[in-house]
Amino acid sequence: MTKRLYLINTFYLILLAGFLSCAAAPEQVDHELPSPVNIIYFVGDGMGYNHVRAANYFEHGEAGVQVYEQDDWFHAAQATYSAARIDSDGDTIYMNGYAPRTAWQDPRYLRRDYTDSGAAGTALSTGHKTIGGAIGMSMHGDTLTHVAQAAKAIGKSVGIVSSVPLSHATPAAFIAHNHSRHNLREIGRYMLFHTQADLIMAPGHPGYNDDGEAEEMSTRYIGSREIWEQIIANDGRTEFYDGDEILYVQDATGDGRRDPWTFIESREDFIALADGPAPRRVLGIPKVYSTLNQGRMRGQEAEMPFEQPLNENVPTLEEITRASLNVLGQNPEGYFVMIEGGAIDWAGHDNNLARLIEEQIDFNNSVRAAVEWVEENSSWEETLVIVTSDHETGYLTGPNHPEVVADPVVNRGIGVLPEVSWHSGTHTNMLVPFYAKGPGVELFEMFAEEKDPRKGPFLQNTEIAQAIFLMWGKPEIEVHRLNK
Ligand SMILES: [Zn+2]
User: Fold this and answer.
1) Distance from Cα 380 to the centre of ligand 1, integer Å
2) How far apart, in whole angstroms, are the C-alpha atoms of residue 462 and residue 91?
3) pLDDT digits (tens, 9 = 90+) for 231-276
4) 426 CA distance to ligand 1 centroid (A)?
5) How does residue 68 score in pLDDT terms, banded at 50, 70 and 90?
């Protein structure tokens, strides 16, 4: 090769290398993950697509009318199955996941391998699938980190709100750690004395029954009568006695001082807290035992929704939502709150359409109250709102199931009960709705890569918390293996 040819080739090679280097240099894309100031995480316990549709038909005579069903919200379906359950012989039965094709072909399929609220709540809160009945614990008995703890680690406030008792499966699964959802007293004590929650608002009042009438009830949701007496003293104490044990409330603000609970119970107190300055740490237990309204007049439930008046002296979930967002919104660092429409599930277990529609409407009104809070006090650049469920309850379908597997309920117009049929008194393995609006929805879009023939893209229950940990970080929290 002549010297001249060698020089020409070298020149072109240098030219090419130069071109490639500037062509390949990617434009500096800002890979900064979004970091919401606030996250409002709604869980409709037992809420399936047909539950939402049934309430829409009764209240509005049409489907798709809820604020979270609009196109400016991200929508996907969510798979709810857990890792395993313990059967009656004490054997561990691993779940078989969710099979999109079989789900719509075999009407019996969805009645199997369904989760409970403990395992589902734990998955939604920690990003881990676990065993039935576990609360914030792995299958191996290790404590799992809650997204609420990630919020605390970055100076945010934390709230737990529900329409069922404070220590029940879902509220507990977002803040507590216990092997069994049935250890209600232990869980109640844990939530009051071993967490840094800034707000807990939910029923479980041992002085009122399900009709909101004064009656001495069990203290099982709180811990003990002794603890209860000290709570309602509402005197700012940080040290409690329970038998020969001394219990201390935690330092919720991180300033090194223990933060006492401010206790409220009357409906007026909840409504008053929806605006203006608020106590730093609020324990709100309305004057009702197990659910805000679903359990009223048990055994004499009316045929139509709202035919029997709601419990007058008990706030609705919407009113509690407004109070909780005002209290938590006072922290300039932001907050995390889980708001559960828990009694949708209880009405589903009862196959009671009237009570289901009441609970679903109160849940919908609570979401709308949160949207108002965002648009008046924050923005969709700052606040992420998630609306989803932990599992479906009742196998609620239209009239054509099983010929048409899980067909939609049928609209019969405003004020008329839609045409439905129930095919279970417990949970199913159906996909459930997932909606989100605000910073971070692109992460959920990325996670929703599985496909269902009827519901389209779906994500796993665990991936919601995983996305939140990606945005807020996952604090190094010592893992404990708790003894049974
Ligand atoms: Zn249930």
Assistant:
1) 32
2) 24
3) 999 999 999 999 999 999 999 999 999 999 999 999 999 999 999 9
4) 6
5) very high
| Residue 428 alpha carbon to ligand 1 centre in Å | 10
Query: How remote is the C-alpha of 52 from its chain's centroid?
Result: 16
Q: Which two tokens stand for residue 375?
A: 């648009």
C-alpha 308/C-alpha 91 separation (Å) is 45
How far is residue 296's CA from residue 54's CA, in Å, rounded to a whole number? Answer: 21
Neighbours of 16 (CB within 10 A): 10
Question: Which helix (H) or strand (E) is 103 found in, with range?
Answer: helix 100-105
- CA separation for the pair 436, 76 (Å, rounded): 9
Report the C-alpha gap between 415 and 413 in whole angstroms.
6
> For residue 197, what are the CA distances in angstroms to 45, 160, 373?
21, 8, 21
- Binned at pLDDT 50, 70 and 90, residue 5 comes out as low
Q: How far is CA 71 from CA 188, 235, 344, 384, in A?
A: 40, 48, 25, 16
Q: Which two tokens stand for residue 433?
A: 């709705």
Q: Confirm if 429 and 98 have CB atoms less than 8 A apart.
A: yes
**Which residue from 294, 283, 161, 291 is spatially nearest to 234, judged by alpha carbons?**
283
